Amino acid sequence: ADAARRAPRALSGLSALIVAAVTVPMAYVVLRAFEGGFGSYADAVFTARMLGLLWRTAILVAGTLAVTVPIALGAGWLVVRTDLKHKQFWATVLALPLVFPSYVAAFAMIAVLGPSGPLQSLLDPLGVDRLPEIVYGFSGALIVLSLFTYPYIYLLVVPAWRGLDASFEESGRTLGAGPLKTWFRVVLPQLRAPLFGGGLLVALYVVSDFGAVSLLRYNTLTLSVFNAYRSLFDRTIAAATSTVLIAVAILLVVLQARAQRRMRAVRRGVTRPSAAVRLGRAQGPAQIALALFALATVGVPAGVVIGWGVRALSVGNPLGTIGDALGHSLQVSLLAAVAASTLAIPVPVAIWSVRFPNRTSRLAERLCYSGYALPGLVVALALVFFTTRHAGFLYQTVALLVAAYIVRFLPEALSATRSALSDVAPDFEEAARSLGHS
Length: 438
Hints:
Elements: H1 9-22, H2 24-33, H3 38-45, H4 48-81, H5 87-93, H6 102-113, H7 118-123, H8 137-149, H9 151-163, H10 166-174, H11 179-208, H12 211-215, H13 221-232, H14 235-261, H15 283-314, H16 319-342, H17 346-355, H18 359-370, H19 376-390, H20 398-422, H21 426-434
Helix pairs in contact: 1-17, 1-18, 2-14, 2-19, 4-5, 4-8, 4-9, 4-11, 6-8, 6-15, 9-11, 10-11, 11-14, 11-20, 13-14, 14-18, 16-20, 17-18, 17-20, 19-20
């Protein structure tokens, strides 16, 4: 029924404007990439080196998803479905790794597990001269990106865990299904929407990450883009590589949409929550495991940041400089958050794609996600290029920086909005329209 209805013109028009705005960086990349003609573009893209970078990026994405999904599912289950003590505290702590940029997480890992780190110092008296080389390369990038991106899935899975109807699980057990079969046939299908939505964000984040892979010496497509700008300042090669990032992002979005298309499940009526699983003797080990996990994902990075601050003060750097930078960062981030939430920027696109699914609405949604794979440097250069030529009054203003943040992080808001809309039965909207509401 949803597919048969046409979207209101105001909704589709507003969505089209939003999509046009967020695709400015992609348009810039394509124009730059083909500036020298298709021949030069092909010479830059269709190479063995590019294929190798694509493969390295792909296996990092796959590995990160393989780690983050179980972590997010397990963490969500613990804080929602069990009698875990201090639930609210742990629910908050488990989301905190998102606070730290990937380069801070990478620095923290190097500081602890590196050749001159405290762990190596503790093991020296035991005869361990050198720790295994897990800090750098694929293993290091996998560990860091997994531990600091799982909250993208966790934050979407927790509300889904809370909304599960216990009657479905009881019906499955009544029909003779065991715990494992009930999990795969009843519980997991109800969690697929947030899993796919959060997994898409994780995949796109890994594709676009620069901080962790550069410090941990793992070459990816994004690192190649930065190297092209830094060493050659060759915008054509960098733009050509960025088009591959866009293609990867579109492929990920298409795969996610196809996998989720037949899995739409809308809960109707009032759900009955499940009884809390008693941890019993596992309560203590669970608390210890969470504490160690929080130490690795929050405590160590926070310690590194505090150490940087103390070191800066010890060499005479004034607090005023740090305070000014912090104040400006908070101001811009707050403005971006208020603008995105007050203007409800992701809502029109989400409603259009969920309630009025067709080729056009699906394309609009995919384009919004695709820009997330672009490195921040490319987004910034694209907006500078656009404003200097067409909107000079915005050049070097806070408004332009806020716009860049909105473009960069719109997919996160869109994914959460889409997941929430998928759980709202269309019957409520139809009932409202029957009562005369627009």
